[in-house]
From TrEMBL:
This is Hydroxyacid dehydrogenase. InterPro entries: D-isomer_2-hydroxyacid_DH, D-isomer_DH_NAD-bd, NAD(P)-bd_dom_sf. Keywords: NAD, Oxidoreductase. Transmembrane segments: none annotated. It holds the Pfam family 2-Hacid_dh_C. One of its GO terms (molecular function) is NAD binding. GO terms for cellular component: cytosol.
Length: 329
């Protein structure tokens, strides 16, 4: 596999308590050779799931219920590697393991920061430059339209690996960035950092609003009709996180009213978006069908994360991408 991107969290592992017991590792529900090789590269032994299994690489978010059944039948499994940065598909499983029960979970959080951040900045520029309506018109425009990303005020919701990479990519554009996160703890590269309860205070300054936060019960429809109304006229909205962060109906109404210059959506609610959904017909909505991180981009990064965590599992106990089941990410 050709690796174009780097994992910014590589080498920054921490040791959970209690540390899981090392042992054989299973790769399920299927075992693609690249990921089996990643386990072996970390010094692991890949074997069929049985009573000796201590580690598990689980490669499907759509089969979360099966993972729950596997863990119930094999309580000796002490570590589970999940395939994506977002782990909202496993929310029910985490809820059933409340109180610190169950294995240590790691995800790919942070690993896909570069490709997803690149897509976020691409969408921001495409929306501001009005590429979607121009492409749909399929004729020479009577007037030149579009605005520049340079010097804009960007409100960035989220402070994880993707948000940090977005900050880095935005530096040449001389933007002012306000980061909205769980706490007001400063984030390197941001001009201002506020807690999420101050979201309404900063939205009126958001010429570009980029959503890069985890999907949890608390963040569902974080951006609804009220929040969209607080944005200045002509603002651009970009969502490369999870569709549930945005009230889809409210966004459609805001676009129809012409208050926003447009929206760039890599994710939607529902997903996939039905073929007859009004957003497909909205000329100022650019939808990229969850392609910010294609398998070609993510597979080498996930393989690297698996190898690093296998080494931690069998060696010094340090894991990258530890999941907090209570927080949901």
């Amino acid at each position: 596999m050709r690796q174009q991107h780097r994992d910014p969290l590589s080498g920054s592992g921490t040791t959970p308590s209690p540390r899981p017991e090392p042992g054989q590792i299973a790769v399920l529900p299927s075992a693609p050779p690249a990921f089996v090789e990643a386990v072996v590269a970390g010094g692991g032994e890949v074997a069929e799931l049985d009573a000796r299994t201590r580690g598990l690489v689980w490669l499907s978010e759509k089969r979360a219920n099966e993972l729950a059944e596997v863990l119930e039948a094999h309580p000796a499994i002490g570590w589970v590697q999940l395939p994506w940065a977002g782990v909202d598909a496993f929310a029910d499983l985490f809820a059933s393991l409340s109180g610190g029960r169950g294995p240590v979970f790691t995800s790919a959080k942070g690993a896909y920061s570069e490709p997803v951040a690149e897509h976020a900045v691409t969408l921001a520029q495409a929306v501001l430059r009005e590429l979607a309506p121009k492409a749909r018109h399929a004729r020479w425009a009577e007037a030149r339209t579009g605005t520049s990303l340079y010097g804009r005020h960007v409100v960035l919701v989220g402070a994880g690996g993707i948000a940090r990479e977005i900050l880095r990519l935005l530096e040449p554009y001389r933007v002012t960035v306000t980061v909205v996160r769980r706490t007001a703890l400063p984030l390197e590269g941001a001009h201002e950092t506020v807690a999420v309860d101050a979201l309404h205070d900063v939205l009126p300054r958001a010429e570009v609003l980029i959503l890069a936060a985890a999907a949890t019960s608390a963040s569902r429809h974080l951006i609804g009709a009220r929040e969209l109304a607080l944005l200045p006229e002509g603002a651009a909205l970009v969502n490369i996180a999870r569709g549930a962060l945005v009230d889809t109906a409210a966004l459609g109404e805001a676009l129809a009213q012409g208050r926003l210059v447009g929206a760039g959506l890599d994710v939607t609610e529902p997903e996939p978006l039905p073929a007859d959904h009004p957003l497909w017909r909205e000329p100022r909505c650019l939808i990229t069908s969850h392609s910010a991180d294609t398998s070609e981009m993510t597979a080498p990064l996930l393989a690297q994360r698996i190898t690093e965590n296998v080494r931690g599992f069998l060696g010094d106990g340090r894991f990258v991408g530890l999941v907090d089941p209570e927080a949901g990410y």
